[in-house]
Amino acid sequence: MKKDIQSFFDFERSDAKLAALLITPTFLLVIGVVAYPLIYSFVMSFGDVEFANIKDYNFVGISQYVKTFTDPDFIQSLKVSSYFVFFTVLIKLVLGTLIAIMLKEKFVGRSLARALIIIPWATPFVVVGLMWKWMLHSKVGVINYFLQKLGIIQDNIPFLSSKIFAMPFVVTADVWQGTPFFVIIILAGLQTIPEDLYEAAHMDGATEIKAFFFITLPLIKFPLFISAILGTIFAINSFDLFFVLTKGGPGNITTNATLFVWNNAFKFYHLSYASAISYVILMFSMLVTIGYVIIMRKIQVE
What we know:
Strand content: under 5%
Number of strands: 0
CATH topology: MetI-like fold
Shape: globular
Mean pLDDT: 89
Helix content: over 70%
CATH class: Mainly Alpha
Largest sheet: none
Structural class: mainly alpha
Number of helices: 14
CATH architecture: Orthogonal Bundle
């Protein structure tokens, strides 16, 4: 009996050693790819490092962080990010809920519709950006073509170089690409609601609208908040669509915070300032997430 127990623990120890051996390369890779750049950029944010003298580190304290709150260009980029976050998350929540409700119902081709709805979300951001850039092209874009055929416009409109249309169409492209993600989460929540609740509500004379507000909406609060939190984080960190569609133009109308970081790091070579901005964005994202969680807990308690 003692030999069996001893052999069991020897086997467990050998398994643990093997697991540690197998996970070590991945662990080292994570440290090299994630942890080291984070630590290095954090240290750099307290210095004054330019690309031309990247080896020269001059400690300047929190001056780079102070600069972020006095830089009008960065404040403008925060306004662009706030506009983008607000409208993309709001529209995705509304559309995602409506589409999820439709996909919950039984109809011919529902399985195919559920499969097709994932395609925009599975498409890489760069591909989505190039696709929308082609559709919005001022000379060969299909949107200008159809608007002219319908008699809505006479001349081609340069949507992506227009101060009026550039930002709304960046929002539109992101909504098209990201709404399926919201649909998946909300649909999963809808499928957990017992049908008996709806049957009882209809027997009491409740309309579909009342059933939605008094049954569906309260029971999918958690999926909605999860969608909102993740959607907000994704929107704050959005870079690809802005870069591919407008590169921040015209002027700085569509320069969001992450694109502003890229410009400072790889266009103007202000590496320390770019690092400081990155951590300001990170702190902002964390505060927003904490705010969502606090609101969600209060609603759950109520």
